[in-house]
């Protein structure tokens, strides 16, 4: 079963994306490089609560 999580920009803390988290990676915190519209560049996006 997958869990829905929200991704926020590491720099400006803007919540831009949602994604699904599988059972295999539930113990680790997700960090993905994505484009942030607020910053205007590719930044690291981390999972929020």
UniProtKB/TrEMBL annotation:
InterPro entries: Ribosomal_bL33, Ribosomal_bL33_sf, Ribosomal_zn-bd. One of its GO terms (cellular component) is ribosome. Signal peptide: none annotated. Pfam families: Ribosomal_L33. Keywords: Ribonucleoprotein, Ribosomal protein. It comes from the Bacteria. Belongs to the bacterial ribosomal protein bL33 family. HAMAP family: Ribosomal_bL33. This is Large ribosomal subunit protein bL33. It comes from Evansella alkalicola. The gene is rpmG.
């Amino acid at each position: 079963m997958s869990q829905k999580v929200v991704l926020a920009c590491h720099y400006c803390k803007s919540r831009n994306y949602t994604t699904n988290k599988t059972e295999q990676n539930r113990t680790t915190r997700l960090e993905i490089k994505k484009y942030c519209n607020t910053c205007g560049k590719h930044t690291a996006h981390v999972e929020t609560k």
